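Kindly review this record before class:
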Amino acid sequence: MSKTPDFTKSFQDFVAAFPVDTAAFQNAFKTQAAFGEKLTKVVLEAAEKSTEISSKWAKDAIAKLSVAAKAKAEPTDYTKAATEFASAAAEMAAENLAAFAEVAKKVQADTVELLLAAGKEASTEASAAVKKATDEVTAVAKKAAAAAK
């Protein structure tokens, strides 16, 4: 009965001939972590600004409503107060929705800028890694060819 050959040593030698640079993986992790940090900063700033807008809108609406809720001397004053409140509420809505749109626009611009920068950096790193790997493989191949002679 034949014995199955053990290729463990051959495979280990083969893998050792093509060393893996763990620095590339570490750099990729660091780059990804930095990108995540920058993107998180954009998101948190947008959330903070949105919260400020919402809070201000609520305070302004409550202030306008408290004026409209005061007792009036004439019945027509109630109609006037309700009309003024509705007008003020519509104006506040337009202003605040425009402010939210500005926040969204800034987030979009910042995100696109980050993605473009990350893409450029990743491309540069990938090119460098491929060049380094090519150089190493070429050196190993030359070494193997010289040893084979």
Summary: The longest helix spans residues 75-148. The two ends are 36 Å apart (CA to CA).
